[in-house]
Design a protein that fits this description.
Low-confidence stretches: none
Order of helices and strands: HHHHH
Strand content: under 5%
Mean pLDDT: 86
Structural class: mainly alpha
Radius of gyration: 20 Å
CATH superfamily: DksA, coiled-coil domain
Number of domains: 1
CATH class: Mainly Alpha
């Protein structure tokens, strides 16, 4: 299997930039206080407004965690590219299918090893 390292690197870097921008927007949204978000001043506050904002905030925090996880995977893939081990299964050492890498460039395991991992 021949991997176009430059193409993969560019794709990973583009995705990394997109995730960083998305994460930054999420951080901006969650940095405001709950009172500011619901315009609460202690008078006439609506429990439903506070609850809705709390749920939205929890979703945003979950999305931040997801972005962090994806960024870590991308950074690890970039490290593997630099080390010359990109595209090799970290479990069995065999090449990861090109189709799998095209769909998930940060994949660390071949489909068989991933399947075994999820079954155990």
């Amino acid at each position: 299997m021949t991997i176009d390292v430059d193409h993969v690197k560019q794709e990973l870097l583009r995705e990394r930039e997109r995730l960083l921008a998305s994460r930054e927007r999420l951080l901006e949204d969650t940095s405001r206080s709950l009172e500011d978000a619901t315009d609460e001043d202690g008078n006439d506050s609506h429990l439903a407004d506070s609850a809705s904002e709390t749920v939205e905030r929890e979703i945003e925090l979950s999305l931040e965690d997801s972005a962090d996880h994806l960024l870590a995977g991308i950074d690890a893939a970039l490290d593997r590219l630099a080390a010359g081990t990109y595209g090799l299964c970290e479990r069995c050492g065999r090449p990861i299918a090109a189709e799998r890498l095209a769909e998930l460039p940060s994949a660390t395991k071949c489909i068989d090893c991933k399947w075994r991992e999820e079954r155990s």
